[in-house]
Structure formats: structure tokens, C-alpha cells
Amino acid sequence: MSDLNKKIYWQREARAVRLRRIANLVPLLQTVKPVAYLLARSWENKLRKSTAEDMARGEKPPGAVRDRAEMGIAILRTITRAIIEDRLSPQTRKKLLNVLIGDAIIREGEIPIREKFRQQFGTVPPAFLLISPTKKCNLYCIGCYADSDRTEIKLSWPVLDRLVTESKKLWGARFVVISGGEPLLYEDQGHHLMDLVEKHDDCFFLVYTNGTLIDDRMARRMARAGNIMPAISVEGLKETTEKRRGRGVFDRILAAFENLRKEKVFYGISLTVTKDNAEEVFSDEVMDFYFNQQGAHFAWAFQYMPIGRAFTLELLPTPEQRLRLYQRAWQLVYEKHLFLIDFWNSGTATHGCISAGRSGGYLVVNWDGTVTPCVFVPYSPVNIYEIYSQGKNLNEVWAHPFFADIRKWQRDYGYGRDMRFAGPVRNWIRPCPMRDHFKDLYPLLQKHRPRPIDDNAAEALADPEYYQGLVEYAQKVAALLDPIWEQNYLKINSGT
What distance in Å separates the CA atoms of residue 85 and residue 303, rounded to the nearest whole number? Predict the structure, then answer.
């Protein structure tokens, strides 16, 4: 490690130590609320100061720097409120501050493991791994991206455990995202998902779940572990949710919320946005219901992707709806300070697409061992079982030319580009190579021939109307959103 990186590393270590000391003061902060508010305000002021400095340097689009800071403030205020209002179990408070913030954020990119990766590959490693340990699900939702059902296809426990272990040892990653199928149905060799969460207590797990299996006992176990944040899938309010997920599901979701509230787990919601519910999902009624009445701490929104079960371009939010979703999502962050991330509109805060193992991004390992750039790019050039049988590891997966070419596209699109020398960055409001730039991704799929992970993905790739439909859709979206990017993000004095 260079002298400069050693200095940076120890500075970050000192900041992490200070944060841990603050974590030990949490019980006091809950009784002396003015102190907690002052502390949070101090952190905000420091963040705003560093944001102003970043904007002055002109390395990144100024509007994107501003969005990133406001998202950070919204997350900070969410956690602060939860602590002050005594809405988190003791273990959850500890793990949120020590593991998720202290390790995953403060020391990002500078711990020795990441420095070793940087020296070997010339870039910072991914920040997390996304794993779908099972394809099995107890629901049969319309348009499921994973086409989940009652199948028994799953990762073996040794492989699942090794994936998390390697992401720590090779990447310095302490954040793990779990998707599905329904992750809480995972079982292999007597082990379940919560066994993984408890074994790797130095990691923090974001788990996407339909919520129907979160009973009193499961909620208590989550609270005791402290290092898990379940995101429960909804489509809006009751009628919209049950239209997609089935009758009776909404009441089971509300029961899960009640169990999680009682045990003081840090939980939120996951929304799939389609043309049919785009006007509902970010409405005042929906936001009030989940954040205020049901006690959700965060919301993740995924705009519909035409993959998976009965995929169709007809469910894509229209370009006009995408514009309104963009405006509304950032309004909720800036004005209400909600911890709300829309995985397209929030691309401005992440500096574009974070798939394919990009620095600060992620790779995906599916239930059958296939590895894909993203859950919404269902094409795999390699299988983790084959990699492990050859005595290789996650770094060999990361280095695959297909993923490397996507990372090159991300860099050329603007990630990592210094605007002072390389000129304007392309539009991060439409960052997705699959949905917003299929014309660019398609040649890479033809070049590397990654295997479709299911028949749906194969059918889409072979359909010329699918290709043409995505290209035309992207052109219409660009016509609406590119002028906003140029005005609100590339100009220093612009507003949001």
C-alpha cells in the first residue's frame, strides 16, 4: 500500500472508531434528544460542505453531486429518527452504525483488501454481492422477473456460505443483497437463510421478500441478529398489490409489518412500477400509508423490466410516466427526506449503472449458479459451480470479458470520467444498458454469447420485435429526459 493510501486508510479507520463510540452513546441519545439532533445536524453540515467542495472541483456533474448528498442526508435522517424514536432493537442499532455505516460506507475503497484488489486489477472492487439462493416461491405473481414457482432449484449451502465469505475476503464487501424466489424458503443441509445472516454477523443483509413468512418468531430472530433489513414487496395499496400477488396477500403483509414493528427491525418496502400503477406508487396516500402508518423506514422502487414470466413491453412505464416518476421521487427525497431509491431515477446518485461488478457496484449469483451482470440482465457467461470446480474464485468471475465489456461501457458512458478533462457525462437518469441502451448492449450479447438463464430470456433475445421495441422506447425516453439532464445536472447553478 502506498504512503498516501496508508494515510487515507488510517484516517478512515479513525472515523470508523469515532462512529463506533457514537454507537455506544445511542441509549443516551434516545433520552437526550437535542443532543442527537445536534449530532445529526453536524453530520449534515459536514456532508453539505464536502458536497460544495466536490461541486467546485467540477469532476462530476454538479446536479449528480447534489443528488448524492441529498440521498445521503435522507438516509442519515431516517436512521437518526429511528434511533431517537426507539424504533430499533439494540442489535439493529449496533449493526446499522457499526457494520452498515462504519464498515460498508466509511471505509469503502480504502481497506487493505480493496487496496490489494486495486493493485491487482487497477480498480476498486464491487461493494456488494447480490445472491438469489432459491428460485422457489410460495406465490405466483404476474410478471415475476425470476419466473419463480414451487421448484426446488437452489444453491447448495457450502456454495452460498462461500460466496459471502469470498465477497468479504476478496472485495472487502460487508453488504449482501438477497433476492429470490422467496429467500425465506431457502433450506439446504439443514440450513436456512437466517443461519447465513447470523453466521456472517460482520455483514449487513438486505433481503427482498414477499413478507408472508415473517411471523412473530421470524421477526424476533431478525431483531436479535440486527444485521438484516427486509424489504417487503408491494405494488401500491391493497387492490393493486393483490391484483398481482393474489387475494389475501395484503393482510399477510400487514401482519408482517406488525411483527417487525413490535420487534424493532429496520424494514421497508419494495415496489415494482409498471404502466398500470405508476400514478399510484409515489402518491401521498401510498407514502403516508407505508412510511407513517406502517412504520417502513425505506422504499426501493424497481421500474418494470420486460423479462421473466410472460414478459411484455406493454407494462413498461411510458416515457411521460418516467418523467413524472423522476420528478416525484426526487421531490420526496429533497423535501420530505424519505429514504427512497428508484433504481433508474436514482442513477444520478450512483453515477449511473452499478451492475457487472463496477467499482462500488455488484454482481449477481442465481439459484442455479449462473452469474449475471444484474437481476434484470438475464444472460450468464459463467457458472459459479464450474468456477469453484476449477479451483477459481469470485475474482475470476469478475474478470470475465463479458462483465469487463459492460464495465467499459459504463466508463465510456460517464462513470469514472473527470468532466474537467473528458467533457460532458451522458444521462444518468436513463443509466440502464438493458432497458435504456439495448442498442449498445445487444452487440455485447452477440459478441460474448452469454447463456440465457431461462426460456424467457432466450425468447426475448431471439425476437426482432423485442429489440426494435426497446430501441424505440429508449429513443422516446431520451427525447424527454436528455434536456433535463443537460439543464439540471450539467449546469452548476441549476436546480433539481
Answer: 32
Q: 272-320, pLDDT tens digit by residue?
A: 999 999 999 999 999 999 999 999 999 999 999 999 999 999 999 999 9
The Cα–Cα gap between 494 and 496 comes to 7
Identify the CA nearest to 23 among candidates 33, 11, 36, 12.
36
Amino acid at 232: I
Q: What is the pTM of this model?
A: 0.92
Model confidence pLDDT, tens digit, residues 72-122: 899 888 988 898 888 999 999 888 877 665 554 444 444 688 889 989 999
What is the pairing mode between strands 228-234 and 204-209?
parallel
Residue for grid cell 419494495 = 270
Whole-number Å distance between alpha carbons of 127 and 248: 37
| Contacts with 25 (C-beta within 8 Å, 6 or more apart), sequence order | none
